[in-house]
Structure formats: C-alpha cells, structure tokens
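Hi, here's the filled form for the chain we discussed.

Project: internal
Contact: R.S.
Residues: 274
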Amino acid sequence: MSGSEMRTAAYGPLPADTTEDVRARGAGAAVQVAVLPVGSFEQHGPYLPLATDTLVACAIAREIAEAYPVHLLPPVTIACSHEHAAWPGTVSISSVTLHAVVRDIAASLRRSGVEALVLVNGHGGNYVLGNAVQESSARGERMALFPAPEDWEAARERSGVETSLLTDMHAGEIETSILLHAHPELVRPGHESADFVADDRRHLLTLGMSAYTDSGVIGRPSLGSAEKGKELLASLADSFGTYFSLLTADAANVSIASNASIASIASGDGTVSA
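And the returned structure, exactly as it came back:
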C-alpha cells in the first residue's frame, strides 16, 4: 500500500493525520519510520519568504510521504541561520538547542514504537544535524539525514537545473523552482533579475553571508521554473527509496548492505543552500 493510500491531506506544512491514521499505518510494519522536515527562518532575498527552507523541506517530506508509508511530522521552523544575521527577519537557535530538539523527538518516537527517524534538511547551515545522525547511529539507533549532495545532484540533472550545486547556494534556481511549483503564491516578482554569483566563499563561516552578497542572493533564480521544481521533488522521492530500505531492513541485512549505499547516506550533509 502506498503512502498516499494511507494518508489524509496535509494542511499547508502540517500533516493532517489523526492518531488512528498513525495506528493503521504502523500496524504490521517491521520498522516504523518518521520523517522530520528541518528548515530555517532566514532571509532569501527580496522575492522568497523567510520560511523558504522550511517550505522546501516540507515539500520534500510530503513527496516522500506520498510514496512511502512514513509518519510525516510537523517541521522544525527555526534553526541555525547565524550567517544570515545581517538581514532583518532572520531568527536562529543554537546548534546545541537544535541537536537537543532532534534528540528529544527521536527519543519520544522510540517510546511510541517508531524506531527510525529521517531528518529532511532544507538549510545548509544546519551542520549539527550530521553530528546528530552520527551519534545516534553509533548508539545503535536508526536515523538518516536526507537529501545527501548526491541526491541533489541527481535531482539537478534529472530536472534540467542548469546551475551547479556550488553556484546555486542561496535563493537560486533550485529553491525558486521548488517554490514556484509548491507555493507559487509566495514567490514575489524580482527573481527574474536577481542573479548573483559568488563561488569562492571560503570565509563564509567567519564573515557571514553579507561579505559575499548585498541582496542576500547567491545563485541564478532567473532560471527557476515550476516544471523544474516538480521534477526536483520527484527525483528526490525516488532517491529516498534506498534510505527507506536501509532503515527498515533487519540487523543482518543492514550489516551486509552495499558499501555504496551506506557511504552515500552516511557521508551526505543533507544540504541544498546556506
């Protein structure tokens, strides 16, 4: 049975499941999997909303939930956006707080019988999510970070996105495309003429985004389209299949899983933009 056959419609970024929906979906599942979108609340230039990263993470998570029998969780909407502090509206929490939130959510899920958690990350600055997955895996818990850079690259190629992942850093072709598809009413005029490239950003963590862009944009949003956004999400949903198989496999199967699959999941930082 597909995820869409087991799920009621989402209300915006929030899942509309009842407790009975969750009970029915978990019945008979060897391993139950929850999906947690993690975004941010930060500037995305003058044409995309502050909630862009959260909306992108939710769009990916909804696409996953339509294809796989997972428990879709509400998003974490404020995370680690310290590099964007120069712009009004940006709000951050510490990496320690974000790590604690993820750890507490995972522990609560395990107490209710949901053994596996996938963090769907929409913000590249949430570096601590990788550490959270590392530590959970070392404790023998089932957790993954999605999408990995390889998943984004496959999606970029399939969708016809022209900008490289290096150049498409923030409020660029990928994010604009996904919002044009998922939330076109939130995309304001201006992305058509906002392209700005700054590929050498080696001091970003020290100096912040304002050292590299006046507008807050780094990428080519003028190339974005709803068609590309739809294909990006479809490709990511396909890529999720390997993660779902790994997280729901029994211990023996996990131990002999292909090195390529494990390396792809364990090494990815699950980012799309800063």
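Let me know if anything looks off before we file it.
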